[in-house]
Amino acid sequence: MIVVLEHYERYSYAEKQLKVPDSHVNAQTNWSVEYSRLKAKIELLERNQRHYLGEDLESISIKELQNLEQQLDTSLKHIRSRKNQLMHESLNHLQRKEKEILEENSMLAKQIRERESILRTHQNQSEQQNRSHHVAPQPQPQLNPYMASSPFLNMGGMYQGEYPTAVRRNRLDLTLEPIYNCNLGYFAA
Known about the structure:
InterPro entries: MADS-box/MEF2_TF, TF_Kbox. Keywords: Coiled coil. This is K-box domain-containing protein. By secondary structure, the protein is mostly helical. Helix 1 runs antiparallel to helix 2. The longest helix has 72 residues. The protein is rod-shaped, with a radius of gyration of 54 Å.
């Protein structure tokens, strides 16, 4: 219905312009015709808007109501289609984001496992080094009471706190080189 009115107004306006020569008086009538055409269009649009909102339906015939209902159904289908399209795009975006997050999560978990493995390896190595350098503690022997009170009274023998079975390690190299190389005969080993 709107389309029919618009076609009619366009053609009637175009016909009027062709019939009347262009002059100052015609320009003023053209403006008044344009004004009346725009005013009619605005009234039609306002009336249709009220009909779409469900207002002022008493003056509409049954055929116009059916046409309005069909237009509303078509509009609703377009609205739902667009809404579904947007929801589908949003869902795809969220699924891609979820996949990226899961990949990042698995990468971080792998890095954590690698670092934990390196840390365990370092701990095992340090524990093995500590075990090889550390002799298991043995019970301390009963020392002379005088030696326990003063470390300066220990003249030779064991140092204070030394275990009797512990081998004393000396950092000095006390090997003697022979000054003379002599043949000892059968005494040499």
